[in-house]
Amino acid sequence: MKMLLLDFNEKVGRENNFKPTFGQESLHQDNNDNGVKLENFATSKNLMVKSKMFPHRNIHKYTCTSPDGKTHNQIDNFLIDRRWQSSVLDVRNFGGANCDTDHYLVIAMFREKLAVGKETAKTFDRQRYNLRTLNEPEVREQYQNEITKRFAVLEYLNDEEDVYRTWENIKESIQTSTKGSLGLQELKGNKPWFDEECLGFLDQRKWAKMQWIHDPSQSNVDILNYVRTEVSKHFRNRKKTYLRAKFEELETNSKIENIRDLYKCINDFKKEYQPRCNIVKDEKGDLVADSHSIVARWRNYFSHLFNVHGIKDVGEAEIHTAEPLVPEPSASEVELAIDKLKSHKSPVFDRIPAGTL
Q: Is the CB of residue 94 less than 8 Å from the CB of residue 107?
C-alpha cells in the first residue's frame, strides 16, 4: 500500500478533467500551476488524491490559514494508490489540535484486511524488575528471606515429579519474590523535563490559538504571538536545566568511575536507529546513487575480492579428542558461577534476570 502525505502548495478546482484524480469536493474553484503538476504526478504514478473527495463543510476542508486569519487554503493532501483507494474511509482536518503552526492536523481513516499468520511469535511483557534496589542492604536481606521461605516449601516436592513442572514452580517462586521485594522498574518517558507546569503552558497556547481562530482581530494576534514566545522560552529553559543536570551527573559518574550509570546516561541521549542512504563509491571515488550502478559496483567489488586463484599450503587438520569425564560441580562452584553473572543482563524467555538468582 503506497501512501503519500505532503504539502504541495497547490490549488485544484472542480474541473471535469480532474475528477478521476481529485473528485468534485475541492475547497477551491480555480487551479494553479502546482495543481496541474500534482495532477500529472498522480496520474503518472497511478495515485488518487483522497483528501479532496469527501463532502465536508469548508471549515473541515482547509488545511492552512494565512497570517491575516481570513484566507484559507487546502494544500495538504493525502494520496494513495488507486488499487487501495476504497480502503480510505474519510479524510478531514481537525482544527482543535494544538500544533502551534498555521497548518491544521489532517487525519485519514482507512480500513484494510490484513493476513494473520497461524504461528505468532512469542511476545513478552515489558515489565522489568528494579535490580538497583539490591544494592541496599535492607532490600537485599528482605529478598533473601523471601526467596528462602519459598524455596523451603519446594524441598518437599516429590523426586519423581516432572522436571518441567518442578522448574515452573521454581520460576514462579523467583518471579513472585522478586516482584514483591524489588518492585518493577518504571519506564522512562520521551521528555523527562516535561511536567505539569509545561502542560499548563500548552493549554494557554491552545486557548490563545482558539481565540484567534474564532476572532482573527489584531488584539488576538498580538496575544497569540506573546503566548507563543513565552511558551517557547519556558520550554527552552526547562530543557536547558534538565540537560545541565544530566551533564553534571555524567561528570560525577565519570569521576567516581561508575561506568554502568555513565553509559546508561549516555544512551539516553543517543538517537534511535537511523537508516543509511543507499549510496556507494565507484572505482574513482565518486558517489553512485542509481540502483543498477550500485549493483554493478558490488558485483565488480566481490568479483575482484573472491576470484583470486593461488596455491596455498594446506596443513594437516588438527584432530580434537573428546574431553575427559568432568565431575559434577559442587554447591560452592555453582554459587561462585552465579556471583560472576552480569546482574543487568537482559533476561531470556523465562523472564528471570541473572541478578535475582
A: yes
Contact yes or no for 245/261 (Cβ under 8 A): no
> How would you label 225-264 residue by residue, b for 16+ Cβ within 10 Å and e otherwise?
eebeeebeeebeebeeeeeeebeeebeebeeeeeeeebee
3-state secondary structure of 107: strand
pTM, two decimals, is 0.43
- CA dist., res. 26 & res. 24, Å (int): 6
Do the Cβ atoms of 64 and 72 come closer than 8 Å?
yes
Per-residue pLDDT for 314 more than 60?
Answer: no
Domain ranges in the chain with CATH number 3.60.10.10: 3-110
Number of C-alpha atoms within 13 angstroms, CB side, residue 69? Answer: 15
3-state class percentages of the chain: helix first, strand second, coil last, to nearest 5: 45, 10, 40
What is the per-residue pLDDT across 80-126, written as a single tens digit (0 to 9) for each? Answer: 988 888 899 999 988 877 777 888 888 999 888 776 655 544 445 56
The rounded distance, in Å, linking the Cα atoms of 198 and 143 is 39
Classify domain 3-110 by CATH architecture: 4-Layer Sandwich (3.60)
